[in-house]
Amino acid sequence: MRRAGRGGRPGRAPWAGPLGLYHPGSSVLHRAPVGAKLFALAVGGLAVVLARGVPGALVGLALVVGAALLARVPWHRATRGLMPVVLTAVALGAYQTWVGEAARGAEAALDLLTLVLAGSIVTATTRADDLLGAVTRAARPLRHVGLPPETVGLAVGLFLRSVPVLAHTLAETRDAARARGLERDPRALVVPAAVRMVGHARTTGDALAARGLGDD
Questions:
Q1: Residue that finishes a domain, picked among 78, 111, 138
Q2: Range of the domain at 193
Q3: Domain count within the chain
Q4: From the CA atom positions of the chain, what is the Rg in Å?
Q5: Adjacent-strand bridge partners of 4
Q6: pLDDT surpasses 60 at 214
Q7: For 36-94, what is each residue's pLDDT tens digit?
Q8: 19 vs 124: which has the higher pLDDT
Q9: How far apart are CA 134 and CA 80, in angstroms?
Q10: Which of 103, 138, 173 is the last residue of a domain?
Q11: Is residue 20 part of a domain?
Q12: Is the domain of 126 the same as that of 160?
């Protein structure tokens, strides 16, 4: 359910983070095994990084866009939460152009967009439980060094679920600073946000300890 925005108009629902991108479907990518998708993501990411030149970067981005069309995932769903990445890519390209390396800047910006969009497509076509289950199975060899794979899966899940919490905290802190006329003071944003995130981390840790997680 969407919350009402200013003036009683419905506002956009809060971003649920990477694990909230899943969109049910019956496409080839939806039916593909989780392990195969993660392997393809790793190989594709390596290819994007190793490929040189703007034409290669454009080919990589075109392939990822084609995968999104094949998955029939709504565009707003696949790209939700990517605005910071787009801004970072634009800033990176602008900086490289300013120092006289426009081609390298364009390549880096395109590669960044390609990698993040590819990860978004995987999460949009994979249930969160299946994704975390695959991470847990992949971490089984760590059992031999004393690290339970379930702990690895839990840590990854907590990290991914903390991303929207951090984004929401920063947005609320920015709004509070703007209401006090302190939007240009970094301390009015950084300090309250840091305190709230530390409190969130302590609360999460206490909840895990209460359930006996982390005990020998």
A1: 138
A2: 146-216
A3: 2
A4: 20
A5: 10
A6: no
A7: 888 888 898 888 888 888 888 899 889 988 888 888 877 766 666 666 677 777 777 78
A8: 124
A9: 24
A10: 138
A11: yes
A12: no
Question: Nearest 5°: phi and psi at 170?
Answer: -65, -40
67 and 134 in a single domain? The answer is yes
* Residue 8 in domain: no
Domain assignment present for residue 5? The answer is no
- In angstroms, the CA 48 to CA 42 distance is 10
Residues 22 and 120: their CA atoms lie apart, in Å, by 9
C-alpha 122/C-alpha 132 separation (Å) is 12
* Token pair belonging to 73: 């995932």
Residues 98, 67 share a domain: yes
What residue has token string 């003071």?
A: 185
Please check whether residue 178 lies inside any domain of the structure: yes
Task: Give the span between the Cα atoms of 57 and 35, in whole angstroms.
Answer: 25
Instruction: For 71-145, list the strands marked E by DSSP.
Output: none
Under DSSP, is residue 4 helix (H, G, I), strand (E, B) or coil?
A: strand
pLDDT of 7 > 50? The answer is no
DSSP notation for the chain: -PPB-GGGPBPPPPP--GGG------SHHHHS-HHHHHHHHHHHHHHHHH--SHHHHHHHHHHHHHHHHHHT--HHHHSTT-HHHHHHHHHHHHHHHHTT-HHHHHHHHHHHHHHHHHHHHHHHTS-HHHHHHHHHHHTGGGGGGT--HHHHHHHHHHHHHHHHHHHHHHHHHHHHHHHTT-TT-HHHHHHHHHHHHHHHHHHHHHHHHHTTTT--
Shortest CA distance to 163 belongs to which of 89, 78, 81, 85? 81
